[in-house]
Write a structure and sequence with these properties.
40% of the residues are buried. Strand 4 and strand 5 form a beta hairpin. The protein has helices spanning 53-60, 88-94, 116-128, 132-145, 151-154, 164-176, 194-211, 222-228, 246-251, 256-263, 303-307; strands at 11-22, 25-37, 42-46, 69-78, 81-82, 99-102, 182-186, 214-219, 231-236, 239-245, 313-316, 319-321. It is 31% helix and 23% strand. The strands form 2 sheets. An 8-stranded mixed sheet has the order 6-7-8-3-9-10-12-11, sandwiched between helices. The chain has 329 residues and is of the alpha/beta class.
Amino acid sequence: MAGSEVTRPLLEVENLRVELATRSGLVHAVDGVSFHLEAGETLGIVGESGCGKTMTALALQRMLPRPGGRIAGGAIRLGGEDLLAKSEAEMRDIRGRDMAMILQDPMSSLNPVMSIGAQVAEPIRAHQRPTRDGLHAAVLRMLDAVRIPSPAARAGDYPHQMSGGMRQRVVGAIALSCRPRLLIADEPTTALDVTIQAQYLALLKDLQRDTGVAMILITHDFGIVAKMCDRVAVMYAGRIVETADVRTLFDRPAHPYTRALLEALPSMEQRSARLMVIDGQPPDLRAPPSGCRFAPRCTLATTACLAEYPAATTLSPGHVAHCIRAGAP
């Protein structure tokens, strides 16, 4: 329509490929991943360990392990800007200001010899250059926002003086200190007990509501997906095999791998002697198979599944699966 504007997603990832050079060969860690994320939306990325979730997140920030990791192809656009065309200096400005990441182990993010107040202050000082008083006030605001009790007193504490839950809150304060447009949370509750996990997830939801930040939540826990996410991308062996909104994925999973993951979950309604187990192992990504990568473990696989990778089948708006049986009665 004339005069109308077509709004683009906040984040667009197209055919992203990541390779890792190792002594035993070239690993195709991420192989043709595409997805998008709207402003204020939460996308869950789920799958087994080693399927490429964290490598995808690191690629978005151009923080792949060196010297072996590299982005071998594809496109990453944040707010319409091509991140792969940015220099390293430009990416340093974007990290923290426009996009930030929370890792699953807060002690891998925090400097043990710096106070938490100094660490929260670092990105604010780098990207906003406030006055000394303004910096101090901003640090206390962020610690208060993530519900650190007595922020003025705790700002001088060191990471070892805080519990695991409090350390993860500090990491969240650092990530959100410059109000980024995109937050990547890589299994942020793995090291927390169940009670603290629930509190931290509620905190992330509150912060998202208050700031409008879009979120990519990487997890293997479908309970977290159900509670936190708007849409879900299921990854297997370096590729996204199914994408759908949360309700559709739980009610009508289309890919055999997605169904197997859901069937492996314990149920409060149905008692079973043992949980469903996915037999076999994911393929070696140094030499991935040409067909469906889940076929060797799939109970429904046929010879056609081994011949070539299945094209995307759109089952409903936003619901896409890479399986030759998707949509079949």
